[in-house]
Amino acid sequence: MIRFDRTVVRYPRAAVAAVDLVSFVAVRGAVTAVVGPNGSGKSTLVRALLRLTPLAAGVIAIDDVPLSQLDRRALAQRVAVVAQRESLVFPLPVWEYVALGRHPHEGPWTAAPSRTDAAIAAALDRAGISPLADRSTDELSGGEWQRVRIARALAQGGEALVLDEPTTFLDIAHEMSMFELFARLAKDGMAVLLVSHQLNLVARFADTIVLLHRGRVAAAGTPADVMRASVLEEVYEWPLLITRDPAVGAPALLPLRNRGPRSPSQLP
Amino acid sequence: MLWLGVALAVLVLAVAAIAYGAVPIGAHAVIDAIAGRGDPVTVAIVRTLRLPRAVLALLVGAGLGMAGAALQGALRNALAEPYLLGVSGGAAVGAVTAVALGASGPLVLPLASFAGAALAIAVALLVARASGGRADPRVLLMAGVIVGAFANAAIMVLLSNAPPNEVRNALWWMMGSVADAGWLTVSWLAVYVALGAALLLWLARDIDILSLGEESAAALGVDAARASRGIFLIAALLSAATVAAAGLVGFVGLVVPHLVRSLGVRRHRALIAGAALVGAGLVVAADLVARLARPPAELPLGAVTALLGVPFFLVQLRRLS
């Protein structure tokens, strides 16, 4: 479980806080999604969780242990983060790359895990990429590479998985299969915290949505609570309609062309 | 099996380097002379002249190979190496300054070099950050070349007042040479190279993680900023010690890690160990070429490695874009 409690992050020389009094909980067994416009503080939350940027106030706690009481290794054993971007300068075989996920559990002289290590085989299997184990990371498609990165995160063996815009460059089939994977991992008992721009997919797959706007929580709750036209129009500053997804009944968002009667007058 | 073959090749190269010279000595006689048997003149030539020279070349190559492998991994930069990053230049300024102040010896000289090298890498990284970040490997390289040019100018200023034969010596040294090897130099360089090797092998796992980038390193429990500072300092120490012992020998740190990777080595513990071995062989071979190319004259060792390294660099540069 990852708990953000009145978290404040301020970048040096910035007039306003990038994250301002944000509180929410990502529990085990559920997909929690953080959404919001560009610059609303989503990635800053992830950076704060990775301790790449300090908290000005508030707490981030993992299973009720504050981040400040966990060293980096202990944090990496509990929470796996798939950062927004990652590219390898020196390619590796997929299984060796996934094996790097064991790093938080290794001392400087423990033998590197072998090709047949159980934790690595399990991670490859859960991410659905066992057949790719011997491929080189520079021979993968975008969708395959994202899955390989998730396999590395699963090899860390923690019970929380944080993903920062994991489907940005993927086509529909790959994106859908990624979301199915997140739902399955949550069903297996993980706490999945997902930062995403894909509101409609999030509405279908997430149990809880946290909508950020200028560093603050604009709305939080079930998809039905958050996916309301009045709230989203104000946050995204764009006219839109909320309809119902005919397949599963989840709320669905439809951005409008910017000339209807609902168009706010201040927009160009 | 592969490594046994590489080690054997390095050994053969070293014996060849000892055998070849103004007085050629057979391979058997070389081994006998190292053991102290046979003709006393041959024993003297081998033990006081050629063996220390070969061992110095091995150590310089090992140190530069490891420094290059560590820098490339920690910086995520396939073009990184001590010479091109200006680290060797900074080390040379430190060494020349120490000598100009009348201080030399196994402790002061390498430590003065180390101070210069550490300063140089810090400045190169700052310049790179100020001019667009370290993400583009070419920006860091440009910063390194600038630092190197500044170091060169500083050395010229330091030498401007020196007597001609001292200038000649300094220039020869700046072109890289293992010709004046003695056991004293060899023994202190061995200590620094062994120290650097031990530290890098200990931190090799962290270099694997650093090569994934800052955010992924943090996600795997490694403080990228702190860990890479440590790696840079060790690489600077290795480079500085080789510069203090043998002057500027460029491009070894660039070529060697790529050669080892082409043998299928990926993880940094094996990569660093392999780079030490291959680097040792490469510099011994380069020194052999330096002596064989235009006898009885000797080419500067740094010129030979540069002639080999520049085309290699261009290939790597092309691969980047």
Report, as a whole number of angstroms, the end-to-end distance of chain A. Answer: 43 Å
Strand content of chain A: 15-25%
Percent of residues in helices of chain A comes to 25-40%
* Rg from alpha-carbon coordinates of chain A: 19 Å
Helix content of chain B: over 70%
- Continuous helix count of chain A: 9
Mean pLDDT of chain B: 90
The biggest sheet of chain A amounts to:
6 strands, mixed
Backbone CA Rg of chain B: 19 Å
Order of helices and strands of chain B: HHHHHHHHHHHHHH
From the spread of the alpha carbons, the general shape of chain A counts as globular
**Quaternary state of the chains:** heterodimer
Overall mean pLDDT of chain A stands at 89
Which characteristics define this entry?
heterodimer, A: 268 residues, alpha/beta, six-stranded mixed β-sheet, four-stranded antiparallel β-sheet, globular, B: 321 residues, mainly alpha, 14 helices, 77% helix, 0% strand
Question: What would you note in describing this structure?
Answer:
The complex is a heterodimer of chains A (268) and B (321). By secondary structure, chain A is of the alpha/beta class. Chain A contains nine helices and twelve strands. In chain A, strands 6-7-8-3-9-10 form a six-stranded mixed β-sheet, sandwiched between helices. Chain A has a four-stranded antiparallel β-sheet with strand order 2-1-4-5, covered by helices on one side. In chain A, helix 4 (118-126) crosses helix 5. Chain B is an all-alpha fold. Helices cover 77% and strands 0% of the residues of chain B. In chain B, helix 4 crosses helix 5, helix 5 packs across helix 11 and helix 8 (183-202) packs antiparallel against helix 13. The longest helix of chain B is centred in the N-terminal third of the chain and has 36 residues, at 40-75. Classes of the chains: A alpha/beta (268), B mainly alpha (321). Chains A and B meet through helix 2 and strand 6 of A and helix 9 and helix 10 of B.
